[in-house]
Specification:
Elements: H1 11-30, H2 40-64, H3 90-107, H4 111-114, H5 121-141, H6 154-169, H7 188-193, E1 207-211, H8 223-228, H9 242-247, H10 266-270, H11 275-280, H12 308-315, E2 354-358, H13 359-372, H14 378-382, H15 385-392, H16 399-402, H17 417-429, H18 436-442, H19 464-467, H20 474-481, H21 516-521
Helix pairs in contact: 1-2, 2-3, 2-5, 3-5, 5-6, 5-13, 5-18, 6-13, 13-17
Length: 532
């Protein structure tokens, strides 16, 4: 995002993609099964191979655009002469990916056979919708820049989303709701949260494809402990952005005004909002985890005095970790809540499952493609955006009745009220699940990036967040003074690192460069725009 790529920045992604494609084509090259022995289980395994080949081509397409299609086991000896393969136009690559996914769909078992534990027919269909939507919107929103393909086939790809979606709808998959949640959800918030904080999703049809972890089998992760201590990974202190928080509607389906003075109060920020906000971003009342740390976050004013009542009140305070050291601190006031299992026991400490493909993605893809094709009727919205909002517990109001939100993201071009709410819903439903960067790239959304940087919660001395700290302790007071804030006292953690905001280069940074090493090996390759 900051325009810091060098000519060699794409080398790892290029190698990773093509090494995996070579592996999967090795399988296809040596796949020999007598027709009499090729039963449904074997055919489904072959379908998985088609899915994986499609996945890695999509991986490369998103990063490099025009790429060589590795449709077979190229030159077994991997000679330089045998690997002089030219790039194909990106829309031709996308068509190849969709063909692989069509083959996968026709070979794969349905989700029900392995309960989503293996690649399956429905998962392949959702991936196809993701691919078609990505390419269709890329070709539409990059139609007049250096990244446009020679032939604009955006309508074809949007239509493909609808075609795949219509077939997927026939599979009868349902969203996980408080009425059918196998974990006993008491609310829409629980039903949504339970898609990310449980060990086993075999009985959750919405989770089409997922990864299982097991301490007993030595396959586990440290997400629970990391999130509980305010850490996301080892790369540095982290925090969610105010922009994400501002994306969520009120629970009654109306817009918020992010400029309302009430949002200087940390707790007011979460009051009567879309329940997905409080399941995604840590707020007062939400546990960091259970068992060893049983107190939930609690942001309220620290009081001075020695009475038992004051002592009890102060003992309940557990503020965002703004004063910690190193990575174990939060830099925006907004901790990640998504994926935190607040009911875990020590035996399930390390093995919450990972949803990889959800049915929700398909609903969002379908609504967006329909709107791009000018066919987003009330019926389309009712079976996509409406059911997602109502699952979460948000009142659904038709976008045409709401009009446009004057505070919504300005993409630098006009979008309809429908598309605004579809994009909002996409960000709310898919937050922290690996979609946002790809969405910004395909939407040509550099106006949201260039000269911008992520902000955080209000930390003025008059706000409850600041007052929740005991500033009579000098160490705490000094730590709060080190928190970077802007002139209006909102946290601004990147102001020193990015004084002018992100320096994304719209004429270059939408695609990675092809490494000079690869260009030297394959003389038929052409460099991406801005990197020549």
């Amino acid at each position: 995002l900051n325009g810091e790529y060098t000519a060699f920045s794409g080398s790892t992604e290029w190698s990773t993609g093509y090494q995996n494609l070579r592996d999967i084509n090795y399988f296809f090259n040596y796949y020999v099964i007598d027709e009499a022995d090729e039963n449904d289980n074997i055919r489904s395994l072959k379908g998985e191979a088609h899915f994986i080949r499609a996945y890695w081509h999509f991986y490369l397409l998103k990063r490099f655009g025009n790429i060589p299609i590795m449709d077979s086991f190229w030159d077994g000896n991997a000679t330089v002469e045998g690997l002089q393969i030219e790039q194909k136009p990106r829309n031709e690559v996308a068509r190849f990916i969709l063909k692989d996914l069509e083959d996968a769909k026709n070979l794969l078992h349905s989700r029900s056979v392995y309960s989503g534990f293996r690649i399956n027919k429905e998962a392949a269909m959702v991936l196809a919708m993701n691919v078609a939507l990505y390419e269709g919107s890329w070709e539409k929103y990059h139609a007049n820049d250096a990244f446009a393909p020679e032939t604009n086939e955006s309508q074809y790809f949007f239509e493909q989303v609808i075609t795949w979606g219509d077939e997927l709808f026939k599979a009868g998959i349902e969203l996980n709701t408080k009425d059918n949640d196998p974990f006993g959800a008491q609310s829409g918030a629980d039903a949504f949260a339970n898609l990310f904080n449980k060990q086993d999703y075999s009985k959750v049809p919405e989770v089409l494809f997922w990864r299982k972890y097991s301490v007993a089998e030595g396959v586990y992760h440290s997400v629970t402990t990391l999130l509980a201590s305010g850490v996301v990974d080892s790369d540095g202190a982290a925090g969610l952005s105010q922009s994400l928080v501002d994306n969520y509607l009120n629970v009654d389906g109306t817009f918020i005004d992010p400029n309302d003075v009430k949002f200087k109060d940390f707790n007011e920020t979460f009051k009567n909002r879309d329940p997905r906000l409080t399941e995604t971003v840590m707020s007062t009342g939400h546990k960091f985890r259970s068992a060893t740390v049983t107190r939930p976050m609690c942001v309220k004013e620290y009081q001075t005095g020695e009475s038992d009542e004051i002592k009890k009140s102060n003992s309940e305070i557990l503020s965002p970790y703004l004063t910690g050291d190193g990575n174990a601190r939060n830099i925006t006031g907004y901790h990640t809540a998504l994926g935190v299992d607040t009911t875990y026991t020590n035996s399930s400490f390390w093995d919450t499952g990972l949803p990889i493909i959800r049915y929700s993605e398909a609903l969002l893809d379908y609504a967006e493609a329909a709107e791009e094709l000018d066919m987003c009727t009330d019926d389309v919205l009712n079976k996509t955006i409406k059911v997602l909002r109502e699952r979460a517990g948000v009142t659904y109001i038709k976008p045409s009745e709401m009009g446009k939100d004057p505070n919504f993201s300005d993409f630098g071009y006009e979008i309809s009220a429908n598309l605004q709410e579809i994009r909002r819903e996409r960000r709310s439903e898919l937050a922290l699940q690996g979609f946002r960067f790809d969405d910004l790239m395909r939407w040509g959304a550099h106006k949201l990036i260039v000269n911008k940087r992520g902000k955080g919660a209000y930390l003025g001395e008059d706000g409850v967040l600041y007052k929740s700290f005991n500033t009579s302790v000098q160490e705490t007071a000094d730590a709060l003074k080190r928190v970077l804030i802007d002139n209006n006292k909102w946290m601004d953690p990147l102001q020193a690192l990015l004084p002018n905001g992100y320096q994304f280069n719209p004429g270059r940074d939408y695609l990675l460069p092809i490494s000079p090493d690869e260009l030297a090996l394959n003389k038929k390759l052409k460099q991406n725009p801005g990197w020549e």
